[in-house]
Amino acid sequence: MLRTRASALILALILGVVVVVTTAFAAPAALNTLAASAAARQQAPQAQAAVTSTATVGLDPESQIMEAVYQKVSPSVVQVVNLAQAGRRAGNTAVPQAEGSGIVWDTQGHIVTNDHVVSGASQLQVIFADGTQADATLVGTDPSSDLAVVKVDPAAASNLVPIQLGDMSQVKVGELAIAIGNPFGFQSSMTRGIVSALGRTIPSQTDFSIPEAIQTDAAINPGNSGGPLLNGEGQLIGVNDQIQSASDSNSGVGFAIPVSIVQRVVPALIQNGQYQHAYLGISGSTYSKSWAQALGLPANAKGAYVSQVLPGGPAGQAGLQGGSQNTNIALGMDQNGVVYLQSGGDLSTAIDGHAVNSMDDLMIYLAEHTSPGQKVTLTVLHPQGQQANVTVTLGTQPSQTAQQTSFLGGSQSPFGNGSPFGNGQSPFGNGSPFGGN
What residue spans define the domains of the chain? Predict the structure, then answer.
C-alpha cells in the first residue's frame, strides 16, 4: 500500500505474498523447476529473462528457494512515488505525497500497482531495483478492483523484466508466500509467510468489494501496496493490497488481489484505460441454516440469500426478489441502528450450473467469468422452497449506487457473509484499509 508523508502509518496496508513449496525436502526440485520454467518463458507472451540460480552453497533448501526467487523477481519490482503539487508557498513544486510498489508487466513499459497508490497524483515517478528513475504517466485505473497501470518510456528504463504470471487455481492454503516491495521506503525488501486462507472478500476503493482475495501472514507494511505476491517459483499470484491491523502496521493478516482478477483487469486498463465489471444489482449474505424458520427455506440449503434487489437493475428486471419484511434476527448495526434479516428474498443456489454455496461463490463467478451484456442463469429457491431458473442480462457496474450500498456484480453484500459491520462499514475499523487514503 502506500506510504504518506503526512501520516506515517495507515490502517490496512498491503498484504503479503503466497509462494508454493510442499516441504523443505522439495527444495532441490523447486530450484530445478525455476530454471526449467525460465527456459519455457523465453517463448511465452509474458516472457522473462531466463534465471540461472546462483543460490549460496551451504544454505538450507528453503533459503536457497528464497534466494533464487529474489534474484529472479527483484528486477521486476519497482517503487512508485506519487507526487502532488505542494502549493504556492513551496513554489508549486511536486513533492512526494505517497509511496508504494509496482510490478513490471511487459517490455513496453507498463507497470501494475494499486489504484490507491496513484490516486490524486499530479506526477508519478518509478524507481527500478537498480536505482534507475523514470517519469511515469497514468494509463488506467479500476477503483473497484484497486488496480492501476502506469507507463514509463522503455528507453528510460535500463532493463524491463516482466513478471511471470502464476495460476490462481493452483494456489493452496499452507503454501509459502513471498512478498517483495518497498516497506517504509526500504527498497526491494523481501518477507515470507504462508497462504493463510483463500476466497476472502475485501473492500475496494468503491462500494463494491474484491472477491477471492488471498490472505497471508507474510509481513506487509506501508509501502508494500502494489507489489507482488509470489509462489515458490517466483510467479505472481496476487498484488499486495491491504492488511487488517489495530496498530496501523503488519499484524499477520494481509490480503492480496488474486492474479485471476489481475489478468482480466490489467489488459483492459492498458487498452481502454478502464475496466467494466459485470453487474447483477443485488446485495445479500451467505445463507445460514439458523435462518431457515424465519425465511421459510430448507435448513440444509446452501447459497447466497438475496436481501435487497436494486429497483430497475438487471436482477430486478429479471424478476429476482429481495427481502421485504424484518425478522427478529439481527445482522449487525449501521448508521440508523440495528440491521435485521429480512424475509421474502430468493436464495441463489447455482449460476450457469455452477454451485453457489456462499455469497463469495457468486461474486467470484461474476468477477472471473462474466462481462456486461452477458446472460446468466440463476437457480433460485423462492420463499417456501419452490425452485426456479431465472435468466438475467448483466449490466455494467456503476461507479456508485443510488442507495450508497453494494449491489452485486463484482460487489459485496452490505452485511458481508453475515458479518456485523452494516452498510458501508469496514471490518478494518475507522481507518482506511488502504493505508494513507
Answer: 278-396
Residue-level length of the chain: 437
Mean local confidence (pLDDT), 246-268: 86
The whole-angstrom separation of Cα 17 and Cα 190 is 10
Nearest to 69 by CA among 18, 107, 108, 120: 18
From CA 286, how far away is CA 283, in angstroms rounded? 11
Q: Which of 75, 65, 250 shows the shortest CA–CA distance to 175? A: 65
Which residues are identified as catalytic? 116, 146, 225
The pTM (predicted TM-score) of the whole model is: 0.76
Per-residue pLDDT tens digits for 323-370: 999 999 998 888 889 999 999 999 999 999 999 999 999 999 999 999
| Cα–Cα distance for residue pair 90/249, rounded to 1 Å | 31
257 compared with 159, residue with greater pLDDT: 257
Q: Locate 251 and state its grid cell.
A: 499484524
Question: 2.30.42.10, 3.30.70.1290, 3.40.50.300, 2.60.120.10: which CATH number matches 278-396?
Answer: 2.30.42.10
**HEC states along 85-105?**
ECCHHHCCCEEEEEEEEEEEC
Compute the average pLDDT of residues 137-159. Answer: 94
